[in-house]
Amino acid sequence: METIKELYTHLFRRQWPAWIGGISMGFIVVLMFVWGAPWGVTNGILVWGDNILKPILYPDSDVQSPIWQFTALINWAFLLGAFISALLGGDFRISIPSFKEFLMGAFGGTLMGIGAFLAFGCTIGAFLVGFGALSASGITMMIGLGIGTYTGLRLYMWLLTKGWGTPGRAIEVPVNFQVILGVVLMVITLGLIVLLDKKVSTYSPALGLGSVQVTAGSLIFFGAILGIINQRTRFCFVRAFREPFMTGEGNMTRAAALALIVAAVFGLIVKFSPLTNVLEIPDVKDILAIEMTAPPSIKAMMIAPSFPIGSLIGGFIFGIGMTLAGGCSVGSFWRAGEGSLKNMTAILFYALGGSLFAFLYRKIEPAILSTFSGLYEKLGATNATGIRLFLPDALGPGWALVIFLAFALAWLLFATWNERTMKFTL
């Protein structure tokens, strides 16, 4: 009994080191690649928005299921995993922000939805998974996020001087009740993982995903595990980008850089190594042809047509939004799982703002392409957001990996140096 209590204390009563979150997320990103269901957040959130706004935007059209669209299902499972983790750790409380914090959450969430749509993903799908996919847009997304976070931080600090930092209040929930509910929900979740064999399609042509069928239970497994890891490590990309400038602390930046390094290295292995030949997962064997190099279908996975325009501009807008909202996509999710109403508001407006912007953008994209036809002809782009660029195709696998690792290591070293010198801390 003492051993069980000690294990429980280590797992749920103590915060895990941030580097565990970074390394775990890097590995899981690549594992989900192999499974045929790459991790993404934005598509699922926009599907939620499409369903809410359907009577206004799509009254005569069908929209994807808010539950069974594969990224939406992963999102639900992530929320569930974070909620269970918070309950078992006694971390759940209903956090009610001030009205001005509500507004910042709504505005920040709206910007996140707009930015993520332009970039074909958020800090996960366009940035972390972009590195794992060896997509050039992952690098431009990183640059946009950095500039946007710095801009958003300056705006946030200015708002604080105008009285926008009014603290809210929290409604505490008895810890014993939290633990009991957490255990019940964990048992239910394990049951869903084992028993829910409904097939879910990962079809998403814009992200290079074919119509692979995976079980809903497997998606719940990945989502719940990621939710637990993120909540226990308090992993958040907004902290990784913001803290060097805000407090000088570099711990989360180093963890995020580790995630990028692991994802890029193992992403290269998945896309080019003959090791993929020995994998015989029935759900995805149609995309794992036995060749010395990965077949085109797996190379194309998560290479979005957003280089360099959509990822740079979208990353900038998303960076501002996540700073005001107080959480990136996954950061907002696990904080919502802890009971933060501000982050729940941010997710809601992420969905609504992104869905509405997507509807309007599709109306004006032809005019953008026509107005700047010369630029798009030089780029060879048919999308206003840019082109697909699998960096190994342009530079070779070795040099592509060197560039991705150089950006991640430079970020890590900058955070460490700035932590000592406070040179760029506001």
TrEMBL record:
Pfam family, one: Sulf_transp
Keyword Transcription among UniProt keywords: no
Chief location: membrane
Membrane topology: Multi-pass membrane protein
InterPro entries with a match to the protein in the record: Sulf_transp_TsuA/YedE
Keywords recorded for this protein, A-Z: Cell inner membrane, Cell membrane, Membrane, Transmembrane, Transmembrane helix, Transport
Subcellular location: Cell inner membrane
Transmembrane intervals: 16-37, 67-90, 102-128, 134-156, 177-196, 208-230, 251-270, 309-334, 346-364, 398-417
Gene Ontology cellular component annotations, sorted alphabetically: plasma membrane
PANTHER family: INNER MEMBRANE PROTEIN YEDE, SULPHUR TRANSPORT DOMAIN-CONTAINING PROTEIN
Family per similarity comment: Belongs to the TsuA/YedE (TC 9.B.102) family.
Annotated protein name in UniProt: Sulphur transport domain-containing protein
UniProt source species: Hydrogenivirga caldilitoris
